[in-house]
Each structure stands twice: as C-alpha cells, then as structure tokens.
Design brief:
The chain has about 190 residues and is α/β, with parallel strands linked by helices. It has a single domain, classed as HAD superfamily/HAD-like (Rossmann fold, 3-Layer(aba) Sandwich), CATH 3.40.50. Helices cover about 35% and strands about 15% of the residues. The protein is built from nine helices and eight strands. A hairpin with a 5-residue loop joins β2 and β3.
C-alpha cells in the first residue's frame, strides 16, 4: 500500500499488538484552538474523518479512549457522539488514570497506543507500546514518540494513527475491499459522514 510505504518494519511491529488506542483531545482531535463567545461558551472544531474510523476499530477489537487535561462540556459531548469506550476529563495525571483503566481491563501497556501533543502527555507517551504525535506538536514531544504524523492536530491525526494500526494488523485491506467481519462496511454508528 503506497500510503504506508514510509512506515518502517519496526514501527509496524510496535503497532501489531495494539488493543487500545487512546488520544488526547485538545491539539489532537482539535487544532488546539479555543473559541469563546461573549457568554463564555466554548466551541471547538473536530475532524469528521476521526469519527468515521471508530466503528472499524471496534470491529477489529480495538478499544478507543480519550484522556483530556481540560474539563469542558463540548469535549464530553463529542466523546459521547463518537461513542468511545472510555473518556476522562480534567486530568492532571493521565498516566494514573490510564493505569487504573488498563488494570480493570487486564491490558498491558505494550498493547496501548497513545496520541499526545504537549507536556501533560509526555509521561504517557514514554510508557505505552506505541506513541504518536501530530506534526505540529512541541518539538520535545516529537523527539519522544515512535511516530510523527503527517497531519497536524485537528486535521485527521487520530484517523492517520488508526489506519496505521489497522494496516499493521492486516485489517485495513479488508475494509478497503469490502470484507468486513461483521458485514457492516458502510455503516456509520457515530453519525460522522
């Protein structure tokens, strides 16, 4: 597949065992911008392509989670719309929150991928089996991840990493050629079109 020709064999090997894909929200699912109106209402822009892949990740038995340092209603609403497996907001210690979740689920850190873009994500990025960052993340974050995305935050970073994981696991060709395990290619339970 031409799109993945730049991916090393070592990187594909790191992505093969992934069972949980976790992401930061601001700066990854969004471009990091915060829009406030005169009443203090916060608005964010999300990339629909990120939501599109969730159904197929579930079909591939990959769980999805969101860990955010900010506690904002619009972010929670988007996580609910995307129907992610878990989401936590207002976190100061993302590693502590994820450790509890993994312990409950019986999942090892080598089976976790995390996408982050700033200092609050650094500890987690260093601990998981597969780490990624948007191309516009802070330089010291880019130096500490396995994979630097082609995309910038809010422009399909989550989708890029999800596609890479599905490709590494040999599951992306089935989606491309209409061979869905559940026979549901084309369905869209997240309402993202």
């Amino acid at each position: 597949m031409q799109y993945f020709s730049h991916i090393s064999h070592e990187l594909l090997e790191l992505a093969k065992p992934i069972r949980v894909l976790v992401t930061d929200l601001d700066g990854v699912l969004t471009d990091g911008s915060i829009i406030l109106d005169d009443n203090g209402m916060e608005y964010k822009s999300f990339q629909v392509k990120d939501g599109q892949i969730l159904h197929y990740l579930r079909e591939a038995k990959i769980q999805v989670g969101v860990l955010s340092g900010r506690d904002v209603a619009v972010s929670k609403k988007r996580c609910e719309q995307m129907n992610v497996d878990f989401h936590r907001h207002g976190l100061k210690d993302k590693w502590g929150a994820l450790s509890e979740i993994l312990s409950e689920k019986g999942i090892q850190t080598a089976e976790v991928a995390y996408i982050g873009d700033d200092l609050i994500d650094l500890d987690l990025l260093r601990r998981v089996g597969f780490s990624a960052a948007p191309s516009d993340a802070m330089p010291y974050i880019l130096d500490n991840v396995h994979y630097v995305c082609k995309k910038q935050g809010g422009k399909g970073v989550f989708r890029e990493v999800a596609d890479l994981i599905l490709y590494a696991q040999g599951k992306l060709p089935d989606l491309l050629y209409g061979r869905s395990a559940a026979g549901a290619v084309g369905t869209n339970p997240t309402n993202d079109e």
